[in-house]
Amino acid sequence: MADDAAVHVIDDDDAVRDSLAFLFASAGLPARTYDTAEAFVAVAAGLRAGCVLTDVRMPGMDGLELQRRLREIGLRLPVIVMTGHADVPIAVQALKAGAADFIEKPFDDEALLAAVRAALDADREARAREAEVEEIAARLAILTPRERQVLERLVLGQPNKIIAYELGTSPRTVEVHRARVMDKMRARSLSELVRMALRVGIAVG
């Protein structure tokens, strides 16, 4: 888990916040607490890892509005909403709006910890995927324009002779460019190169 990954607990009830902070500390999970959604939004833009655990009914900004605000500022941390039994329809709305899960109060500690750990795992995996895309994009950026043209045709499945014809060059020159593309992209096979292309949105036919 990244050093800054934490469970961000948002609830207007002091006792609930204290109880959850103790639970997460006991489980070895870093936690930060906020008494309003507005207080969390004030710091949210600077967060890069973790998950959000928020009550759905709060004075001022409620859990659903918080989700909307987080989307607006581009924060993509997984959100788990806490609801009372009568608030299940609201929880369903939260799920439709992108929440990772919802937990009914009073909740079982182990069920809550399982949901939070799953959300933290999902966040970690999402960040790993983003890092992979950034790394592939950085490799792509060092290709020459002609190498990029060869790459785009390779991932379409075109053979060297067809690529050479389309680019007005020789198959041997295409072979040289192809070797350079494989080297710069650090691809061990054509299938790996295609996978990289898919990751960064290059059309593969």
TrEMBL record:
Task: Return any one Pfam family short name.
Answer: GerE
Q: Which InterPro entries match?
A: CheY-like_superfamily, Sig_transdc_resp-reg_C-effctor, Sig_transdc_resp-reg_receiver, Tscrpt_reg_LuxR_C, WH-like_DNA-bd_sf
SUPFAM superfamilies for this protein: C-terminal effector domain of the bipartite response regulators, CheY-like
Q: Which Gene3D superfamilies match?
A: 3.40.50.2300, Winged helix-like DNA-binding domain superfamily/Winged helix DNA-binding domain
Q: What is this protein called?
A: Response regulator
- Keywords per UniProt: DNA-binding, Phosphoprotein, Transcription, Transcription regulation
Response regulatory domain location is 6-120
- Matching CDD domains, A to Z? LuxR_C_like, REC_FixJ
Q: Which residues carry this modification: 4-aspartylphosphate?
A: D55
Q: Organism source for this protein?
A: Caldovatus aquaticus
Does the record bear Lipoprotein in its keywords? no
Domain HTH luxR-type intervals: 136-201
